[in-house]
Write a structure and sequence with these properties.
The protein has one domain: DHBP synthase, CATH 3.90.870.10. The protein has six helices and twelve strands. It is globular.
């Protein structure tokens, strides 16, 4: 199924449909500030297993969650240290993934040996509004793209990944990785420099 939604001014009635799809255990493609990602309800085991299959990904690979704000992020982490909190306040919403210790709210099947989780609060009114509507974390993993691919086309995603239950179409988006910062230690560690500036450190 294909559903066109304005990324900057999302229609509330369409967001209800997306939230309902997630609650029903669907795996969907969502537009973020770094391209499209596969997404599902973090608490639905069948949906998370389908997401792994779509990505052809090892189950020990760290995944990320989408949340609407830092307060919600804290619910899914084992505390946010003051240094990490200050960095997150400067950076978010934005194209960053912050690695933090996971709380017991994260299903054990999604945890690596390090018991960490990636936190994303994209600079996307659609994602922020959806997160508020859905009322819990959304598991997210970027839709794969070739190294020379400069954009993500939702129509191409729908054709290539026919097992997807829904594609949320916000038009063709730039494909750019988020900046990944590990905040589990006393000092932040840059794991990947991407779209987010390191000036927030």
């Amino acid at each position: 199924m294909h559903l066109a939604i304005d990324r900057d001014e999302p229609e509330s009635w369409l967001l209800y449909r997306v939230a309902d799809a997630l609650k029903d255990g669907k795996v969907i493609a969502l537009p973020t500030d770094t391209g499209y990602g596969f997404a599902c309800d973090i608490l639905n085991r069948q949906a998370t297993e389908k997401l792994y299959r779509l990505k052809g990904m090892d189950k020990q690979k760290l995944l990320s969650i989408l949340v609407p704000d830092i307060q919600t992020a804290a619910h899914y982490t084992a505390g946010i240290p003051n240094t990490a909190f200050r960095i997150m306040r400067r950076a978010l919403p934005g194209p960053y993934t912050f690695i933090l210790r996971a709380s017991k709210e994260i299903p054990r099947t999604l945890l690596t040996k390090q018991r960490t989780i990636g936190i994303r609060i994209p600079d996307s009114p659609l994602i922020i509004a959806l997160g508020e509507q859905f009322e819990r974390a959304i598991l997210i993993s970027s839709v794969p793209g070739d190294d020379d691919q400069a954009s993500h086309d939702p129509h191409s995603i729908e054709l290539e990944y026919r097992d997807l239950d829904l594609v949320v179409d916000s038009g063709i988006l730039p494909l750019q990785p988020s900046t990944i910062l590990d905040l589990t230690g006393s000092e932040p560690v840059v794991l990947r420099e991407g779209a987010g500036s390191l000036d927030v450190l």
